[in-house]
Amino acid sequence: MRKNSVVLAAAAVALVQIQPAGAWMRGGETYGGGRWGAEAGGGHWAAGANGHYGSGTYGTTSSGTHYATSSRGGTAEASNGSWSATSASGHTNSGSYGTTAYGTHYATGSYGGAVATNNGHWGAESNGQYAYGNHYTGTATYGGAYHPPAVVNQYYGTGCYNCGGWNGGGAAVAAGAAGLAVGTAVGVAAANTANANAAAAAYAYGDVYAALPAGCSYSTYYGKAYYNCSGYWFSPAYGANGVYYRVVPPP
Amino acid sequence: MTVPSIRHLAILLVIPLLALTSAQAQQPQPPAQPPPPEHPAIEPAALEMLKATSQRLASARSMSFTAVTIYESPARNGQPLYYATLSQVAMQRPDKLRVITPGDGPASDFYLDGKRMIAYTPAANLVAVADAPPTIEAAIKEAYDKAAIYFPFTEVIVSDPYKNLSDGLTSAFVVGQSHVIGDTITDIVAISNANVQAEIWIGINDGLPRMIRAVYPKDPTQARYEIQFSNWRLNPPMKDADFTSALALKAPRMDFARPDAPPPGKP
Question: Which end of chain B is more exposed for a tag (fewer CB within 10 A), N or C?
Fold first, then answer.
């Protein structure tokens, strides 16, 4: 059942661009008034963002197969580590899902796409394009007040691994495959186990850190700042109320 | 004279009790009281308090205050950790804002000078600069959209705080008064809408907020957020130079970017 939750959570991530509130009393909607969110309960799910919505049913059959359907005709089901899906327009996809020894929940697609989650972080890849985030459990309309500012993990100086937050170390990041399979209206995605494990090691591309490791050299390329830290490249940016550093390809 | 036995004494004591009980039972019962009128979920008194503090804030052409924000963020083991930041806030309507945050965490300075938003991190000596819309509200939205920058004191600096606080309310009631928050006496108002449950402490003498606590009932982590206000000054004299930093603008540039956005591609 937990695996099914992961698949559904990944589906929601693929469907919904979570946008926390801009002010405390504005939880659950954006400044522009566009509502977002996804909910599931009683065998029904619904999700929406920027005026686009979907809904359907989900559940588990007597044989243990987890399934979800959309009101527009898309279906998806998963059991024993495999999933398959058909979109309303007839496109199909399938793959595997599971949990690695590192605790990373993943799903892979037959077209090579990938999505994985770990410790509240998620990562996805499609056609060489990457998306990352945290709070994959944000499939409810809680409209979280705001992201943990960059102060998280910097609270005690050089960083606190166990503090969680924005620190990407240990977060699952899928990479290396091509073609994210979002084949159905319920948005079943895919993942790559080996890459997710590798990404859990250190300084994975796309990970975010509140502080640089020691021994970095600063340089600029095309007017942008970069840090080379023993061969790993970091790009500084200001966001979530502080500076943070993202692991990027060499400029 | 015979000494009465314990049994006799017990009888003597019980008989009057029985008689009393019987008499009471025979008295006519008062007519049944009608049920109390249904209490409104949104108490007018609570709204009046929100209006009063909102008008006080909205009527200020400029203001400054200290904000201590405390929030929870789960550790990897799920344990909620408390984080706190202190911000010195100054604003001047309609388009200028300064937020100096020395900590906790890396210090940062944020400015709206009427045309640009500037975020400077002294330790890293990096600055992000971008064009800003012509009002504080629009600029705050831009900062959030562009870089997930969020100021938890947004409610008190927007042009219409009451609208921000009251839109979609499902409940509002007066809790009572506190003598221990903000070194003054405060009225406590509890408000909630579909997604947020908040409590506001408002000074009874100056009508200014001293503390807001909020929780999001649908948040799986049930994290709590708190902001404490102090050092309020309304309509202090300010000048344009207060809302920019020549030092910051000389620093090497970085981008504004959301941490949850896809990483940038190669240049």
Answer: N
Say yes or no: A107 and A229 in one domain. no
Q: Domain range spanning residue A218?
A: 212-251
B263 with A246: CB under 8 angstroms? yes
CA distances A223 to A220, A236, B222, B254, Å, are 6, 12, 42, 9
Q: Tell me if chain B has a CB within 8 Å of the CB of A235.
A: yes
Residues 124-183 of A with CB under 8 A from B: 129-134, 137, 140-152, 154-155, 161-166, 170
Whether residue A26 sits in one domain with residue A57: yes
Domain at B44-254, CATH class: mainly beta
Top residue of B104, B195, B253 to mutate, by most chain A CBs within 10 Å, is B195
Shared domain for A184 and A220, answered yes or no, is: no
Structural domains counted in chain A: 2
Q: Does the beta-carbon distance from B73 to A152 stay under 8 Å?
A: yes
What is the residue whose two structure tokens read 């190669």?
B266
pLDDT digit of tens for each residue in chain A (251 aa)? 333 333 322 222 222 222 333 455 654 333 322 223 333 434 444 433 333 334 456 667 767 666 666 555 666 666 666 666 666 566 666 666 665 544 445 555 555 555 545 444 444 444 433 343 433 332 222 233 334 444 444 554 556 777 766 544 433 222 222 222 222 222 222 222 223 333 334 688 888 887 888 899 999 888 888 999 999 999 999 988 788 889 999 98
What are the start-end ranges of the E strands in B4-125?
A: 62-74, 80-92, 96-103, 108-113, 116-121
Q: ipTM beyond 0.95?
A: no
Nearest CB to B154 within list A22, A137, A241: A22
Tell if the CB–CB gap between A132 and B264 is shorter than 8 Å.
Answer: no
Q: A229 with A186, same domain?
A: no
Provide the shortest C-alpha distance from residue B127 to chain A (in Å): 8
Q: Which residues contact A197 (CB under 8 A, 6 or more apart)?
A: A100, A101, A102, A104
Whether residues A132 and A235 fall in one domain: no
Do A241 and B85 count as a contact with CB atoms less than 8 A apart? Answer: yes
Q: Where are the domains of chain B?
A: 44-254
Q: Are B121 and B103 a contacting pair, CB within 8 Å?
A: no
> Do residue A238 and residue B119 have CB atoms under 8 angstroms apart?
yes
A123/A234 same-domain check:
no
d(CA B65, CA B227): 12
Contact B266 A134 (CB under 8 A): no
Percent of chain B with pLDDT over 70: 87
Residue B234 forms beta bridges with which residues?
A: B63
CA neighbours closer than 13 Å in the CB half-sphere of residue B38: 3
